[in-house]
User: Fold this.
Amino acid sequence: MSIRTNLEHIRERIALAAARAGRDPSEITLVAVSKTKPCEAIREAVSAGATILGENRVQEAESKIAELHDLPAVWHLIGHLQTNKANKAVLLFDLIHSVDSPRLVEAVNRAAQSIGTRQAILLQVNIAGEEQKFGIAPGEFEHLLDYALAVPAVEVKGLMVMPPFSENPEEARPYFRALRDLAARYTNELGNRPELSMGMTGDFEVAIEEGSTMVRIGTAIFGAR
Assistant:
């Protein structure tokens, strides 16, 4: 199937999942994950209506964004950000999904201050406590949130999670629910409708049922890597 057909199918599934949860599908942002994909495929996706593109690596994204500067799209960083790449990330991305330490918050804050802007971020939480995954431990989340709210050039928009991999999307549900519940405990700081970046190709419908506002979908749009 074409990228256009894939996008139409994904939007239909988003709408159905939202309906099951009694939600408005317009509440859910689709991030088309374009990592490792060639610029021709990205152009096709944008022409089919993808307006937000997600990249994993700053260096890969930098060359793509330069080549595709004419496209009516914005770029999100969904992969881990190294502190020494913060300056470039702030120049390239509208939203960084993967901030997970005070040190990284400070690096992003300094980078944004240096160009006179505020950088929108999400705080990545390692709900499952997986050693091989990035993200702040739930027990340290409050400290990270307080730190991020205190710096002047960072704007905390919400939270992000990556649950343990499973072939069964239902196994991700408790982790999505836990992130939603964590956000709900901090409504004074995050507001009543924080962004919740959760759900990928294999489990985005369950994520929407549990309150996701941003789904990160690559394979179901662009095909397997």
Q: What stands out?
A: The chain has a mean pLDDT of 96.
